[in-house]
Amino acid sequence: MKKTIRDIEVRGKRVLVRVDFNVPLADDGTVADSTRIKAALPTIRFLQEQGAKIILISHLGRPKGRVVEDLRLDQVARCLSDLLQQEIAKVDECIGPEVEKACAALEPGEILLLENVRFYPGEEKNDPEFAKALSRLADIFVNDAFGTAHRAHGSTAGVAAYLPAVAGFLLEKEIDMLGRALADPQRPFVAVLGGAKVSDKIKVITNLLPKVDALLIGGGMAYTFLKAQGHGIGNSLLEADKLDLARDIMARAAERGVDLFLPEDVVATDLSSDAAHQTVAVTEIPPGLMGVDIGPKTRARYGQVIAGAGTVIWNGPMGVFELEPFAAGTRSVAEAMAKCQGITIIGGGDSAAAVKKLGLAGAMTHVSTGGGASLEFLEGRELPGVAALLDEDARECSPGARGKDGEGNA
Predict the structure, then answer these.
(1) Which of 291, 307, 341 is the last residue before a domain boundary?
(2) Among 66, 174, 216, 372, which is most exposed with the fewest C-beta within 10 angstroms?
(3) Which class for 183: exposed (0-12), middle (13-18), buried (19 or more C-beta within 10 A)?
(4) 171: which strand partners?
(5) What is the pTM of this model?
(6) 339-373 pLDDT per residue, tens
């Protein structure tokens, strides 16, 4: 377990908080969806209540180490000001004398938002000099950006080498929810995996197979499994070089007594602009057509399995859910999870977008804020932004005292 902001004295201290304010913007540049900003509020408010001087740092978009005017954080500052009902100061840089001066002038409870950290090449390169420059702004580092915790960047892992580094409440919740689900799930433990390719989920499947009681597979990746079973799949997505792997996964599931479910029926089309579509059994996918969603029998079967679960983790859509005619499978999984009485966890990314679009996010136990981070967590990988934080049993150290271990974590 990692130390959190509850475990460190912040009163009167300058606290650099890595948040994930990578929010979608509307055509007029305003924040179109403030979910990620709202997710950081519990940490920000706690630090205010404790009398900390708060310095927020985030990225927005992919400026690739250069200044992009449309990706400045001015509108984010306005949105945060509205949410907190107080004026949030913002500077147009992340490092340097002027930023250091602004940070030094902060009073307890005040908040300063730094400019988009990805305007600096040193951020994504995890340049030690850039990380050191960030560390000069503060006395303590708090990582509350789970969505970037899988990146060893300057403002995630790098700066933690030079300051006492702890988790914020959002990061703590993500690690706790996903960690407990994998380590000590309420059973039956069901994983629902979708998305386009088996190759994207190999490590997740490998890590989950020894842990789950049932594995439900949908999306484009299902057709490689169906082909491996000997079915004709028409023009459906196929990774021919993964057929042996699919057979191996099915064999290992059988050996372990894991119920591995594949679609019984699918929605098939040629995906042209005026395409008709039809529901067919997986044994009868017509040549020239491709499967783009799970069919009604599969939706009902998957729904039954989810309904009886003690814990369900879902990562990846069941079909081409961006197109309404092929969204029924993804919708049915979301609705089944919303009704499930067990622990329901959405692993970020497209699955999180789907439950939010359907208005079902509030019915889930936990909706992860990090697509890539949650995927790597489900793979069993250590996230650099988490590994760099102080362990619960570690002594609180002074700035610059992390030594070789700290630098190694960066």
Answers:
(1) 341
(2) 66
(3) exposed
(4) none
(5) 0.88
(6) 999 999 999 788 998 999 999 999 999 999 888 89
